[in-house]
Amino acid sequence: MSSTTFDFSRWPPTLTDTQIESLTLHGTTYALFNGLTYLPPGTTQPPSPSSAIHAPISLLPSPVPRSLFVAVQQLQSAYNVLYSRIAMDDDFLDKVMGAVEGAGKVDDFTGTLWRGWKDIRDEGIMQVSAPAFLEPLHLGLFRSDYLLHTGEEDGKLSFKQVEFNTISSSFGALSERAASMHRYLQALTNYYGVSSHLKPENFPANDSTKGLAEGLAEAHNAYGVSSAYILFVVQQNERNVFDQRWLEYELLQRHGIRAIRQTFEELATSATIDSSTRALRITIPSTLSPSGSDSSIEISAVYLRAGYTPSDYPTPTHFATRFTLERSRAVKCPTIPLQLAGGKKVQEVLSRPGMVERFVGETNARELRRTWMRMWSLDDSNLPIPLTCSATPRSANEPNGTTLARALANSLVLKPQREGGGNNVYKNDIPLFLETLPLQEREAWIAMELIVPPRGVGSYLVRAGTTGNNRSDSNGGGKRNKIVRAETVSELGIYGWSLFSRETGVRERGDVGWLMRTKGVESNEGGLAAGFSVLDSVVLVDE
Ligand code: ADP
Ligand code: MG
What we know:
- The protein is α+β, with helices and mostly antiparallel strands.
- Helix content is about 30%, strand content about 25%.
- The chain folds into two domains: about 425 residues, no CATH class; about 80 residues, Glutathione synthase lid domain (Dna Ligase, domain 1, 2-Layer Sandwich), CATH 3.30.1490.
- The strands form five sheets. Strands 3, 5, 6, 17, 18, 19 and 20 form a seven-stranded antiparallel sheet that branches. Strands 7, 8, 9, 10, 11 and 12 form a six-stranded mixed sheet that branches.
- Strand 7, helix 8 and strand 8 form a beta-alpha-beta unit.
- The radius of gyration is 23 Å and the shape is globular.
- It binds adenosine-5'-diphosphate (ADP) and magnesium ion.
- The site of magnesium ion has 4 residues, from strand 6.
């Protein structure tokens, strides 16, 4: 991927206070009116919501070199196929993520999910009870996340992958609306002529809602019962509900498919599996039932927007409920093996010599590898970088992977087998962390070289004030919007879907849409909940 002469350090163009005020007024009003929204903090559900706040947003889109943007979008199909094939390779997942041989040995959460899946495989029900439907389909609604990276030697920019999400890939609908908000601000104000880059032809199309809902609709149609519902499994106090609701509305309006939302708590008593057909049925209360009385509905596809983090499973019953869903013949988005395929450990193992080549052809393997930073395991001795003389082991039995991580700490991030933000260990914190990490737990952690995004690039970030007092403080505690100009890093996510099984093969789409998230450089993590991170969009710039 090639370089660009665009000067990132001169972005964003300077706006006057009046221009900032006006863009904030129009941007936040557009966001509130067009469902670029969250539930306010502290909202409990039920009862039904009575207010919303606009999502944190940027006033201007962030620059991305055109050729690099096109290249990562084109690469998505190869990623869809890669992760679909991994999810169908039981032996590989047993070795890498399993509780006997893999990361599940030392990571309880991974181990519990893997054991549940193994039990289901051992029961053999997938094969015997429903001959017309030998193996339930897997659905992946994927998002591959990237940061722009500055080449060490030539200073050239390329996109490097942060991670590949196979479960609860969120923000599709909100990212589409963030892009349309910027298009609206451009049309309304021409951004006061402050930059020649800010014109409609440089704002790429983003139809994420349509694309992701299409994946769900394909799953529903493949299941073959048109009156069935799609089940959204959601977290109890989810604030990002509108992002999910947009998908429900799209499913109903464009595809005539109804969706029902339930938490694991509700499903513990409402979900049952028909013993002969393995159809998943749930009971829904009269208020949600078309017949007006309590009724039982069949589920065509299970879409998990919960279940990716240990706190979603506070009791063994929660895991049991997950396994009930897994046992059914409904299409799962994702199945447990597809969730396991998205583990950071898998990402690291794929980067080892010859590994990704097992799953995709040579040309695709080469293109995929070009998007990876170097990674290794803390317990490994086969390292992608030679141990340098400055790397001295702490003890005789210290694995080389750990010694190297200590020596190169300043250019590394360590990651455990977790999703959802807030779990990584960066740079200076690494040596002390390694002192306290028990030897046997190292297998569950990977070391990854830090991506080096362009420096000096900035953004105008706007966050809604939320609490009752009419004051704007550094925590965003006032009712007034908080607006800051900050030096920022932007993470691009590319969405794709894949519907597959060993019998049907892989059917996928890689041109589904994208997400741009931007955060202040001072915060390490990308999650919108932790720190000040906003929904953004892309302005394409030419080399
Ligand atoms: P999670 O599953 O918690 O989202 P990620 O792998 O996406 O985990 O890491 C969280 C955040 O940490 C990313 O959004 C990014 O900001 C930062 N990060 C992760 N890996 C790297 C890396 N190699 N270089 C620079 N920043 C990274
Ligand atoms: Mg992430």
